[in-house]
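worker-3 :: picked MFS transporter
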Amino acid sequence: MPAYRFTFLMSGLCMGAWAPLVPYARSRTGVDDGALGLLLLCLGLGSLVMMPLAGILNARKGCRFTMHVGIALVLLTLPLLATTHSFAGLMIALTVFGAGCGSVDVTMNVQGVMVERATGRSLMSGFHGLFSLGAIVSAAGITALLWLGASPLLASSGVIAVLVAFVLTYGQQMLGRSGDEGSPIFVLPTRKVLLLGLLCLFAFLAEGAILDWSAVFLADVRGVQHSIAGLGYAAFAVMMALGRLSGDRILLKLGARRVLIGGGLIVIAGFVMVVFANDWLLNLVGFAVIGTGLANIAPVYLSLAGAQKTMPGELAIAAATSLGYLGILMGPAAIGLVAQATNLSSALLAVAALMIAIIFSATRLVPKVSPQRLH
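worker-3 :: tokens ->
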């Protein structure tokens, strides 16, 4: 497997490592739900701050350097996330860990666009499928080791070992600098890039809604046992990974415009099934449908951001990713406020309504070209 594909897999491993450790970190620090929300906010803020800086580093120092910086931050903080008992220490560690994940996230997308430019092919969906696969493997592997009785530190050591092995092997083969010698280190995002970032925000917000609220919906609204309420996100994540791994072939056949329109419609259908079908098994199908529809929306937007000519591609990707990440950072909290004012079903339908903007903007954002190319 070429190094640039491993880049996406490693990024997924980083992102998936924290989720199984959350209950243990909460137990060690003794925090309540509000304090846990503050900790999760630190994770998102660290990523959000680092993403624009990662765009600059990619342009000036290269993808290899920036990826190694991000992985170094993850390696530095992951053992702390598995062992620290201090609330303040956990806040600092999560912020730095988020910065590392943000750096790796931007770098993988810059690397992906560089490969797309070099090959003239649409490859981003398949790359993001590897990211999803890495996150699933990381979270499932750590969870399995914890279930077998391993300590959080021992359970996370496997991810640490794989990241170190990547840096020493395939990490040395990554593509170099993405920017020209005279390219600027900062450019205000253009209107097109801002629009792409906003639409990424909608897609990421929907993803964050399933991540943070699917189990709550199944448990509180449908009365499902807490021990199996996580099946909603599992169904979503698996279908998203499968959709992304096959996304390049879908794009080749249908083109980006149809993928965005069709994906938006499928997501709406999935949310409608979740909200209006009273059988929780049908709700699982609905979550799977949402994952199928969302799978290739964000990769298409990131590919378009890297291909546009109004600003340097690596800076455009950093801007679109940063804006999009606000959806994961702020979206779940916004859903909570809407749910408190109305109910959770209405809040989920409001998320589905955001897909209308994705559907109707597709004809303007994506030129009418042959399906083989996004740009």
